[in-house]
Amino acid sequence: MVSEQKNKLDFTKSTYKSFLGELQKRGYFFASLESYLKNEHSKVFSSTHPNSIIRHDVDRLPQNSLKLAQIENSFGIKGTYYFRVVPESYDLEIMQKIANLGHEIGYHYEDVDLVFRKIKDKRQKIKKDELIDLAYESFCKHLETFRKNYDIKTICMHGSPRAKYDNKIIWEKYNYKELGLIGEPYYDIDFNEFAYFTDTGRRWNGNNVSVRDKVKSKYDFNFKTTQQIIDNIDQLPDKVMFTIHPERWHDNPLLWTKELIFQNIKNVVKRVMIKNKDKSKKIKVV
Ligand SMILES: [Zn+2]
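Above: query sequence and zinc ion SMILES. Below: predicted holo structure tokens.
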């Protein structure tokens, strides 16, 4: 079971290709979140067939997402790409190219954080209930912006690791399904059915460095590298969801090293943040 470390760099396009190839060899069928929830592939997406949902959080560098979308397309794979509304992610030209490859486009929302930052800049105080109302208004506005070009059916929260509030608090009061949306992975996927793997923190076992990208699941795998997942692929259950941050996956050695260093520093900062959060449990909303 010990992972045999191949002489290959992780989080590169070639590693991504072998990862997809091995998943396909293991028999996984890939669906976007929308088609999974609509049960569009029920014939193949059954309990006896291994299924995989590949979700991409386009936090920044959208052109990297296009490269992964093209690789997936060459394998006949369709996934979901969640774009943020901020300029470092929102790129209509790239979105269109990705949509043309048959992938789903979704909204990677962070409206609680966006609204809160505006209020903080004006040094105003806000009650949580009011913050939720404003965030919902902002969410609806941004959803409409996306819907000018795409029939958005699923959404997914952006973790906003440095933010004080979880972007999902909107749904304590409002229901996205009333907006014609059919799913949000953190609510509509049963993670006791799907094993969940995220490359948050540039590793696959980043639970202790992830501020919000966590799920409650009966599965408890501890794979750090992509090669470890590949080596233990037979242990994976028949349903898995992978979250990929495409900005982390590239072959440019300079950018690759920059990302490695950047993520390692970020992981240290996030670990401290999680520790402090656990210690103080400060109430940040008045
Ligand atoms: Zn994100």
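Residues 15-280 form a domain with the TIM Barrel fold (CATH 3.20.20).
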